[in-house]
Design a protein that fits this description.
This protein has 136 residues and is an alpha+beta fold. It is built from 3 helices and 5 strands; from the N terminus they run ααβββββα. It has a 5-stranded antiparallel β-sheet with strand order 1-2-3-4-5.
C-alpha cells in the first residue's frame, strides 16, 4: 500500500529498531511507496512512511531493492555530497563514501554482503542514516 511521506523531523531523528519477519507488510508498503515516488526519489527508509524499523528500499536501475537491517561494514573514498530528501525541504551537505560494503537481509530474510559504489552507495548511506536517526 502506498503510504504518505512523513515530514516530522522529531520522528525521523529517532533511531530505528531492528525489523523482524513480522514486518513483511512494512517492506511491501515501503516498496510500493518508493515505486509511487520514483520520479522524484531513488531511496526510502521505513521511518519516511511513519514506521520506526531498520528497513530501506533503493532504486537500482529498473529494480527496487529492499534491505532489512542494513549495516555498513566497510567504507572508503570519503567525499562531501549535496543531497535532497523527500521528507525535508531543500538540499544539504552530507559526508559520504565512494565505496561501501553492506550486510543486510532480503525479503526472505536471507543474509547478503555486497559492495556498492558511486550513486547507489550514496543513496544507501542516506537511507541507513535515516535508520540511525540522522537526517541531512
Amino acid at each position: 500500500m502506498i503510504k504518505q511521506i512523513n515530514h516530522d523531523e522529531g520522528f525521523l531523528k529517532r533511531k530505528a529498531v531492528k525489523a523482524t519477519r513480522q514486518d513483511a507488510e512494512v517492506v511491501a508498503d515501503l516498496m510500493d511507496t518508493l515505486r509511487a515516488n520514483q520520479e522524484r526519489c531513488v531511496g526510502m527508509a521505513a521511518n519516511m512512511i511513519g514506521v520506526n524499523k531498520r528497513i530501506i528500499a533503493v532504486q537500482m536501475g529498473i529494480l527496487s531493492v529492499p534491505m532489512i537491517n542494513p549495516e555498513i561494514t566497510k567504507k572508503s573514498d570519503p567525499y562531501t555530497a549535496k543531497e535532497g530528501c523527500l521528507s525535508l525541504v531543500g538540499q544539504r551537505s552530507a559526508k559520504r563514501y565512494g565505496t561501501i560494503e553492506v550486510t543486510f537481509l532480503d525479503q526472505k530474510f536471507q543474509k547478503h554482503t555486497q559492495t556498492f559504489s558511486d550513486f547507489i552507495a550514496q543513496t544507501i548511506q542516506h537511507e541507513i542514516d535515516h535508520c540511525n536517526g540522522i537526517i541531512i
